[in-house]
Amino acid sequence: MGSVNTPIGLLNVTSEGEVKVLTSKVEGVKFSLTDAVDVTVDGMIYFTDASYKYSLKDHVWDFLEGRPHGRLVSYDSATKQTTVMVRDLYFANGVVVSPDQSHVIYCETPMRRCTKYYIQGQKKGSVDTFIDHLPGYPDNIRYDGEGRYWIALSLAPSLACDLAVRYPSIRKVMAIMEKYKLRASVEKNGGVLAVDLEGNLIDHYYDPRLSMVSSGIKIGTYIYCGSILHPYMPRLNIQENPPVLRTKYANMCILEPFGEVLGMEWIAYAWSKVDGRN
User: Fold this and answer.
1) Among the listed ranges 148-162, 183-197, 256-270, which one has the minimum average pLDDT value?
2) Sign of the CA dihedral 32, 6, 50, 23?
3) Long-range CB contacts (< 8 A, 24+ apart) of 7-10?
4) What confidence category does residue 25 fall into, taking pLDDT thresholds of 50, 70 and 90?
5) 166: helix, coil or strand?
6) What is the Cα–Cα distance from 48 to 7, expressed in whole angstroms?
7) Global pTM?
8) pLDDT at position 60, please?
9) Residues 147, 128: contact at Cβ < 8 Å?
10) In 121-237, which residue ranges form alpha helices assigned H by DSSP?
11) Which has the closest alpha carbon to 51: 127, 108, 133, 124?
């Protein structure tokens, strides 16, 4: 089983619990914040190095510096070769291999986007936008085997964060606040987003009190969410609590609360493609 350890690199973990380091650096640069991993059917491993400059403990400084230190990396289990596939990424986070094995999708957290990198076919080696302008900052992405990707959204967009991405002066102010432990409270409305194989929005589940959601995995009728901060795992039965669709604007709908899950009030978006003339 392929696994990543943040400060070490790519690991192989056997069913007996034996751990072996497969690779700890690429192009002479050691991994500092390896993040997510997925494997193709032929054994090629793709993983992200969120930042070659900052560790997990200091990851906030990667955001505040505002430079692309992330990479999408491959590891050939046959040749033992480690290769940078895409460089200059802004905090490269989740990664998933498409069900048809033609491309991988990786997430860039501060840019609120997910991108395709083609590994087969005429477009091999090129990139395309999969989905951008996400309603939150993406972490991991998972395929459910039923035609949907589930993207974990660590928190909702905020004016402060969006301005920080655009303006270095805002990042400097936020860096001073971080240095003196005066970080603004913007960590809320975390959740998961479901999209189809073309990147079209389907459902959005989130909670005002949920933050730093790192993963969303659908098993049966449940969504399970992980977090890099919280010592619990929220679970939502999406069959019993379907998202409510009430269209008011094109491509948007209104939020409605629909119940309590592990003490949290989940809210669902159901996105519809509505002609703007309606």
Assistant:
1) 256-270
2) positive
3) 7/31, 7/32, 7/33, 7/55, 7/56, 8/34, 9/34, 10/34, 10/37, 10/45, 10/47, 10/75, 10/82
4) very high
5) helix
6) 13
7) 0.82
8) 76
9) no
10) 159-166, 168-179
11) 108
Contact, 154 vs 136, CB < 8 A?
Answer: yes
* CA pair distance 244, 255, nearest whole angstrom: 8
Query: Does residue 195 surpass a pLDDT of 70?
Result: yes
Alpha-carbon radius of gyration of the chain: 19
Per DSSP, 208 falls in state T
Q: Are 25 and 10 in contact (CB under 8 A)?
A: no
Separation of alpha carbons 135 and 206, rounded Å = 10
Asked whether the beta carbons of 92 and 193 are under 8 A apart, the reply is no
Tokens found for residue 168 = 């270095």
Q: What pLDDT score was predicted for residue 278?
A: 32
Tally the residues of the chain: 278
Best CA proximity match to 214, nearest among 150, 108, 116, 138 = 138
Token output for 122: 């005429």
- The answer to whether the CB of 225 falls within 8 A of the CB of 243 is no
Mean pLDDT score of the chain: 81
Domains and CATH numbers, the chain: 1-132 (2.120.10.30), 134-278 (no CATH)
141-178 pLDDT, tens digit each: 999 999 999 999 988 877 777 777 777 777 767 666 66
